[in-house]
Amino acid sequence: MKPNLSSSESRLTARQMLTVAATSAGFVVCQLDVSIVNVALASIGHDLHASVASLQWTVDSYALAFSALMLSAGSLGDRIGARRLFVGGLVLFALASLACAFSRDAAQLIAARAVQGIGAAAMLPNSLALLNAACGHDPKLRARAVGLWTAAGSISIASGPIVGGVLIAAFGWRSIFWVNLPICAAGILATLVWIDKTRPHESSDKTGVDLPGQALAILALTAFVGAVIEMRPLGLLHPLVLGGLALAVVSAVGFIMVERRTRAPMLPLTLFADRTFSAATVFGIGVNLTYYGMVFVLSLYLQRVLGHSPLQTGLAFLPLTGGFLLSNLASGPVVARFGSRAPMIVGALLDAVGFAALMFVGPSTPTIALLLPFLLIPSGMGVAVPAMTTALLGTVDKRRAGTASAVPNTARQAAGAIGVAAFGALAGHAEGAAASAHIVDAVRWSAGISVALLVCGAFIARLVRNTGESAQCERRREAIE
């Protein structure tokens, strides 16, 4: 496949559009499971007798495996071929979805969700690497392709609550995992037919996976998230909580030391020397932590406080998830014209306004009152996230596209897991009226924390270079090399 290399041409070719369609299948199933599972939390908890902590692990086991393994998957894709890893991820995700559907208790479901996360880790960074290669690493084409790619994910997020609500009402919560099978099958077929084989890069095809770094990353993330989840029921001073936090710190320090010394690090620390890369990564952490943490708490609020059924919850979430579609589609042309910095700043502030409106919810707030924040939040994120992704991809050369794509997505998925753990812990583990009061307080506190983080994110986004500035830096880097 010969991508269009002309930077003056802003339209995607038919071949590039087919690549967007094929790679979007992976992003669709990754996003679909987020929204569907959140709608199904109450049903899963009732059927499997799962506590709030078990529900947090149901969400976070997926996010933890996703985030902890994405760096290795991106690096491995650079070495053995992005297409091979992308297809392998789709196959594993489909098999794990079957295991989720047949789970008989919370432990089995949590384990199967972790395997889904492994499949998602293989898919996401390598789908972006395939997109980047198809666009010839042209910044304007890349911005449009990423906008369409994220729009596909937004459609899945938007349809997830409704599809999940209907399926749960008709067939039970297990049916939500069967939806992944035809999407994965279509993605595998489209990739094999429409995308040419990718070759490993000669500079890195003889290096192995950074096993010590990978093990320390898994240990640090799991220990920290586990400690946060158990902090509320056990107490901050409980030995297991203190031990988990200590283990997380020691593992994180060890991880950094290993990555500085190893010959083939899973996290190349040199990437953070670029201010755009660093700023955009931190920005993505704030965006994902606030969104995924808040969605978890809102799922509990809608079903356990307002008494909504899964279908009613899906309908209530429709503006929150559906709002991503139009803003994602608009983001590509906006970034191509104005660069990444301004859309990131505006998107973060718009997102913050939406969260601010949720600081005033109560135990009898009408669902219609949630409409405005549920529209503002995805509108802000839908503009900011594609701009952030485009800025990140513009900081590295094609040989490291998979690794560079994995770093910010790893950080964002880890932040999402931490958000679920932290905001979910605020919801408490009480029963009856006490539980409702805790959940309402959790929504308010989570919203306030989110506003603060997003305002900080808007300031951080000012450090991001625009497309022209990034292109100049890339030319200087190539000249040095």
Global Rg: 21 Å
CATH superfamily of the largest domain: MFS general substrate transporter like domains
What fraction, in percent, of the residue positions are helical?
A: over 70%
Q: If you consult CATH, what is the topology of the largest domain?
A: Growth Hormone, Chain: A
Report, as a whole number of angstroms, the end-to-end distance.
Answer: 26 Å
User: Structurally, how many domains make up the residues?
Assistant: 2
- What is the H/E string? HHHHHHHHHHHHHHH
The largest sheet, given as strand count, sense and whether it forms a barrel, is: none
Low-confidence stretches: 1-8, 474-481
- Give the overall shape: globular
- Mean pLDDT value: 83
Helix run count: 15
* CATH second-level architecture of the largest domain: Up-down Bundle
Q: Provide the structure class.
A: mainly alpha
Strand tally, please? 0
In terms of DSSP E residues, the strand content is: under 5%
